[in-house]
Amino acid sequence: MHRTLADDLSRLPELLSTARDLAVQELAGLAERPVVRLDKAPDPEALPGIGAGGEAALARFAERWAPGFSGSAGPRYLGFVTGGATPASVAGDWLTGAYDQNGSGAAGSWATALERETVGWLRELFGLGAAHSGAFVTGATTSNTVGLAIAREWLGERLGVSVSRDGTAALGRVEVLSGSPHSSIGKALSVLGIGRDRLRSVPVLPGNREAVDVAALDRALSELDGRPAIVVANAGTVNTVDFDDLRAIAALKERHDFWLHVDAAFGGFAALSPSYAALVDGLDAADSVCVDLHKWLNVPYDAAVQFTRRRDLQVAVFHNASPYLGLPVGEPDFVHLTPENSRRLRALPAWFSLVAYGREGHREIVERNVALARDLGERIAGLDGLRLLAPVRLNVVCFTLAEDPTRERVAELAHALAETGEVFVTPTVYDGTPGLRAAFSNWRTSADDVDRIIGAVTRVR
Fold it and tell me: Residue 457 and residue 377: Cα distance in Å, rounded?
């Protein structure tokens, strides 16, 4: 064994203790850390020829790189939809690295069984029935891609071809219909060979809504003359967290032949609260579902889950035909269900957080975030120079300048907010108007943080 490796092994407890001390220090100061870093990163250095050892690497990281890391895990990072990491999930993530299990199959480890237990808990949490099976993937984009890959195979089944064997060309023209799809849907269609331009926009409801007009969707499906299609419904749109009427869309299956994929990346967490669960009524009727866990479950990156009613088609798409991996019979190994062969045990941080805080603890996070978002929305609506672009429906506040909201002026406002170090929000365009969106999904965020956010907004608007 190399001398430096051997030395690190002999001093492993001390090395891990030093890493723990650095993590504790950083997490303790997270609330006061600049939410984003806008200054220039260090220039790249040459690859070390002779290693310095673990302790020296930690010291170099702490001095050279740690100061430039953002406070994205903290309470006032409201960009995108970014959760933090609950204490229990951090512990689970550390142990994930320590155990270093390959979650691709059940041979020789209980890791796969733990993932199956965790998927079962999540299925229950989101109100899905036993017909839905699932697996962990890297994020919402991969979850959407897996769901649409299964949908693609279903189209082949309906048309009498096997896409997994014959390729997408065997399908001919594919129709994918949606009202306000996330950008990852187009990316998934590109990856799957269906094509971004096959995504057909269906009108949304009038009155400042992003939810699809179900009557318009009915007409669009009728125009296909019985040809099977894919419908992508939304349980929580990016800009305003609007929800399609999932039950009404599913009822259209009585007259039309389509696969229903629901993108519930963060909106699916509405199911945790009795006050908002009606928003996802009908989710169980979906053929495939995407949920992103490093958003509102507040587990470390990267973690998402996908569900489907057609595991047989999922195996047809993703099975790995190699004798050393085993055949996908009975309860198939995860290697036959997702794009990866090698799979980090992403389920472990989620398992830790669910055991530690349960349904009630995670419901409290959701309800607190929603209450804080509504508070911020009311306070922004009362400020001169700003206006809401849409009602605060759940956990996202979408707002803009009251006068002349050009892309440039709105971008200047976003940059000015970031420069305060107090808050980070991301730009968008809603109904043709440039704006900003503040998304609440972090377990740490409190009323005091809203005070600091509105203070920053007041100073720079």
Answer: 12
- Mean pLDDT score, 361-378: 98
Residues paired with residue 136 on neighbouring β-strands, in sequence order: 305
* Domain range 102-344, CATH architecture: 3-Layer(aba) Sandwich (3.40)
How far apart, in whole angstroms, are the C-alpha atoms of residue 330 and residue 341? Answer: 19
Instruction: Say whether 189 sits in a helix, a strand or coil.
Output: helix
Class of domain 19-86+358-461: alpha beta
Angle between helices 140-159 and 311-318 (to 10 degrees): 100
What average pLDDT does this structure show over 346-360?
Answer: 98
The 10s digit of each residue's pLDDT in 281-307 is 999 999 999 999 999 999 999 999 999
Burial class of 21 by CB neighbour count within 10 A (0 to 12, 13 to 18, 19+): exposed
Kindly write down the DSSP assignment for every residue of 398-431, as one continuous string: EEEESS---HHHHHHHHHHHHHTTS-B-EEEEET
Q: Where are the domains of the chain?
A: 19-86+358-461, 102-344
Percent of the chain at pLDDT exceeding 70: 100
Q: What is the rounded CA–CA span in Å between residue 323 and residue 316?
A: 16
pLDDT at 327: 67
